[in-house]
Amino acid sequence: MEERDNRTWTPTYLLERGHPPTYDFFLALSRTSPLGMLKEVTMALPRSRYVREGQEGVYHCFSRCVRRAFLYGFDALAGRDFSHRKSWLVDRLRHLAAIFAIEVCAYAVMENHYHTILRTRPDIVASWSDREVAARWLSLFPRHRGIRGTTIPPVEEEICALADCPERIAKLRQRLCSLSWFMGRLNEFIARAANKEDRVKGRFW
Questions:
Q1: How far is CA 32 from CA 8, 11, 49, 117, 118, in A?
Q2: pTM
């Protein structure tokens, strides 16, 4: 386990490490606790300005439902309980954390939105072999499914074929440490499941 000092992740300390301040997704975290003192930085910037590819960072991400959709809890107006949807999000977070080089430090599921604290780990993804990158990507986007929609693990021939494409592997290596790709795969999965259950189409987030 890596050693940690007692310095607080203040905006100044983060700036010194190359992490610019933001309002929407970025919070200064205490180094002593994933849920330590959160100090909001009130400078709004595009995500591309503060999420720097190839650099470690800790980010507060959140998504909110539209069209009065429920993510968790009891809808008194419709008389429906949506508490089971929390397990969708928790299970999906576990699944994605096992594939991506991104750590889930904390999460909170509310009635119509959720919060996550995510830490990107480019140092981990850099240590993966080309074969491991290929295997993880094919696990994220399986090419074959069973009769009931269950995913079928990739075969060795598929993994080797993808691993033999250096340019493609380099791009996938970046994506497996990308905050946008992580959040996209999380939100897409939940939206599809919720829309199917509600028998509707269109945006969920």
A1: 7, 16, 27, 15, 16
A2: 0.75
